[in-house]
Amino acid sequence: MSSQLIAAELKRSRSPRLEVLLPASFTSMAIVDEINKARPDVTLISNSLQDGSFAGYSVLRAVQSTNLATRLVLLLEDCEHDLVIDAFRAGARGVFSRSESSEQLSKCIYSVHKGQIWASTREMEYIVGELVMSRPLHVLDAQGRNLLSKREEEVVALVADGLTNRQISEQLKLSEHTVKNYLFKVFEKLGISTRVELVLYALSQSSRGDPAIDPCVHNNRQNGNQRRYRL
User: Fold this and answer.
1) How far, rounded to the nearest angstrom, does the alpha carbon of residue 208 sit from its chain's CA centroid?
2) Could you give the angle at the alpha carbon of 63 between the alpha carbons of 58 and 64, nearest 5°?
3) What beta strand segments (E) does the chain contain?
4) pLDDT for 128-148, tens place per residue?
5) Are strands 42-46 and 71-76 parallel, antiparallel or unpaired?
6) Cβ(77)–Cβ(54) below 8 Å
7) CA pair distance 142, 229, nearest whole angstrom
8) 217 or 156: whose pLDDT is higher?
9) What is the pLDDT of residue 219?
10) Which of 18, 50, 120, 227 is the most buried (most CB within 10 A)?
């Protein structure tokens, strides 16, 4: 019933205007099948489905493994630390609490559709804190060779620690302009365009037990358009 109500609220949204689809069944397998068939721009998934209290995470992981362009938002009863971290590790582009308004939900879906990350300041603090404790980031190409230079890896590690460009320049004894150049090269190699994406991508990779990153996953989203970077 709650899904029907949420769908009705979203359909009434005028800014932005949304086309809403509901799956025939609310099991994880049925939802994954529906996403593969309909290929929506954004999918809102409850963490609790008919086949389990945390079955929504199974949907996230299944869709992430397909490399579809569909962006995923996880609907949570409470955005606790572990639930938020696991959501982004599983491929979510945003998390949304059921306590928030339908108007905010429309904004969330629209923002994620535009390629942004939807997370509160507190949730971003969870992510940054988790990255500080995670393993160093190593980016490998298809042949297992390091894609980033040693200096680029150092810059990425400091970004993941939450340092600003000025702080990175002071720590590495570089100019801010040089730091921006390193970040631009990293973004190009990974096919991403913002620092937030870099942090979230590093987090999602650190949970797999293999620190290697395949840049082709993000390159698939460029669609030949010129990318704008937020350094």
Assistant:
1) 15
2) 100
3) 42-46, 71-76, 94-97
4) 777 666 655 556 556 666 778
5) parallel
6) no
7) 25
8) 156
9) 36
10) 18
Amino acid in the structure at residue 32: V
Cβ-contact 178, 211 below 8 angstroms: no
Residue 139's SS3 state is coil
Amino acid at 129: G
Q: What are the CA-CA distances from residue 44 to residues 23, 68, 70, 72, 205 (Å)?
A: 11, 15, 10, 6, 22
Look at 60 and 89; give whichever has higher pLDDT: 60
Q: 139 burial class (0-12, 13-18, 19+ CB within 10 angstroms)? A: buried
Q: Do residues 107 and 80 lie in contact, with contact meaning Cβ atoms separated by under 8 Å? A: no
Contacts of 168 (CB under 8 A, 6+ apart): 155, 158, 159, 174, 179
Among candidate residues 220, 224, 223, the one with its CA nearest the CA of residue 67 = 220
| Cβ proximity of 160 and 148 under 8 Å | no
Q: With bands split at pLDDT 50, 70 and 90, how would you rate the model's confidence at 205?
A: low
Q: Are 136 and 161 in contact (CB under 8 A)?
A: no
**Alpha-carbon gap, residue 12 to 137, rounded angstroms:** 44
**Continuous segment of H or E residues that includes residue 140:** none
Nearest to 44 by CA among 68, 12, 10: 10
β-partners of residue 42 are 71
CA dist., res. 179 & res. 151, Å (int)? 10
Residue that is written with structure tokens 């320049």 in the block: 169
How many residues can be counted in the chain?
231
